[in-house]
Write a structure and sequence with these properties.
The chain has 3 helices and 11 strands. It has 186 residues and is α+β, with helices and mostly antiparallel strands. β6 and β7 form a beta hairpin.
Amino acid sequence: MILYIFLILNINGLAQTEQQRFNIISKHDDIEIRNYEPAIYASVTLPTNTNEQSSSFRILAGYIFGGNDKKQKIAMTAPVHMHRNDINGDKSLTMRFVMPDKYSIEDLSKPNDSRIEITNSGEKKFAAISFTGYNNDSKFLLNSNKLKKFLDSKNISYVDNPIYLGYDPPYKFWNRRNEVLFELSN
């Protein structure tokens, strides 16, 4: 009975989570070329010498749970975006939460934490590949390389900094959705 209740709550919770909008331009086996609509992101970048993934999530969750100048509560959306940066040897991780569609940048409260940046993103094209299970470095690398090989074989220009998208909460054990994206240059 407890398992049944857990399943219903898990399914209902996911059904109510707004997901970032995109259109599939073309599909090649398990790879999609997508056009993403403009979006607003709350993002934080931390050096990789910290426990950056859990710290970044806590910082951004604090913002959407009311850690802002108006104590505004903002619904969680999916996916969570993550990408690693290496600028002149300074390594960091950027995590982004997509803000719900109903907000304009002017509607969003100012974060209490100065490390959070609220930005508007224009329409962009990406190549994407999906995989299941819990993400780890080997799965991410395997799928990044597969996507790169495809893009290179088709002479498609891309920004060589893969983005990880995670769609599911950590307590979801099966049918987990993960993606690797490369932003397309042309």
